[in-house]
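Blinded run. Sample ID left blank on purpose so nobody reads anything into the name before looking at the predicted structure. Input follows.
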Amino acid sequence: MDSRQAPYEDRSAAGMALARRLAKYSGDRPVIVGLPRGGVTVAAEIARALNADLDVIVAGKLRAPGNPELAIGAITEEGQMYLNSLSIRSLHIKESYIEEEKRARLAAMKEKLNLYRGVRKKVPLKGRTVIIVDDGLATGSTMISAIQAAHASGAKKIIVAVPGGPADTLERIGNMDEVTEAICPLVPDLFFAVSQLYIDFSQVEDDEVVAILREFQENGRKRA
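Blinded prediction complete.
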């Protein structure tokens, strides 16, 4: 990693920059996994460059009571949960609230899962090199949940690839036993939001994610 401060033009440019760093894994026939929605746009550029499979891991943020922007953890589509125990203790959050929030997030994710999985069936990760991609790190809760989901699915290697994020979050993720390598070219001296990594940080809509998944589903059929 380095601490260059210049932002990326957009998510596609970030994906191309990461693809150059990830070229060494092309011989592993990796699965590139994007975290919806913005991470899928970044991941698609990597998958195209490496001629690799692309999929998504859907993970929902568990929200703090009274502050939906603050993550206290995350949950994956399979119901696997990552909890930030420090935040939970400091906010005195009860287990009953966590269970209620888990149910709410799973219900909210159901529609998105039906949408995505109706286009692209889940790519098996067992024995594969898995590169998990997002458009940036903040608290890292969603990424950590995705890492745990990939590990539980039998991934042989897990590489985390993000365009940028704060040094402390990157260090925590890079030190996880499940992670082979964490690649993050842009580590600002002062990090305040993922949006600072980009000139164009336009919102990515579900129809764009669906179009990308359809592209790779059709490419997979052609290769078969």
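Unblinding after everyone has recorded impressions. The domain at 11-59+125-218 is CATH 3.40.50.2020 (Rossmann fold).
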